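testing teh design pipeline on a random one, pls ignore if ur not involved
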């Protein structure tokens, strides 16, 4: 059985495959982050749109996103830090590096991603700066 592209060490079916098949929902912001990375690897643009914050879905450039994803050969995901984003939280942040081959060299995409939960479901909201991430975490922790 193939291992998951998100590099969790689990099989695809036991990890992100259960989310990309739409059989289950991610319980944490990190699970959603990992499944979105796997969706990029597998070119599942519909999943990327479905897991984007609902108010942002209509304005998503699906064609542009698909074209960008096609230009990448994804080779790895490294989760550097997660803050909040657990099953009982409503907000979370995941700092990660996604690596790809771009023109024969390794390119790194480093991002702090903000996630929010609505009606029990996690969504990707946006990339945030380090200062925005700290403000987000203060709001989650109540101070």
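output:
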């Amino acid at each position: 059985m193939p291992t998951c592209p998100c590099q969790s060490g689990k099989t695809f079916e036991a990890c992100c495959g259960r989310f990309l098949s739409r059989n289950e929902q991610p319980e944490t912001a990190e699970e959603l982050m990992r499944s979105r990375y796997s969706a990029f690897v597998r070119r599942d643009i519909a999943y990327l749109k479905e897991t984007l914050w609902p108010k942002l879905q209509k304005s998503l450039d699906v064609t542009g996103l698909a074209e960008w994803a096609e230009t990448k050969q994804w080779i790895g995901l490294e989760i550097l830090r997660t803050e909040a984003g657990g099953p009982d939280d409503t907000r979370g942040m995941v700092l990660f590096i996604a690596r790809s081959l771009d023109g024969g060299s390794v390119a790194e995409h480093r991002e702090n991603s903000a996630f929010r939960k609505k009606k029990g479901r996690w969504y990707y909201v946006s990339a945030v700066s380090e200062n925005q991430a700290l403000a987000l975490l203060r709001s989650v922790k109540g101070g």
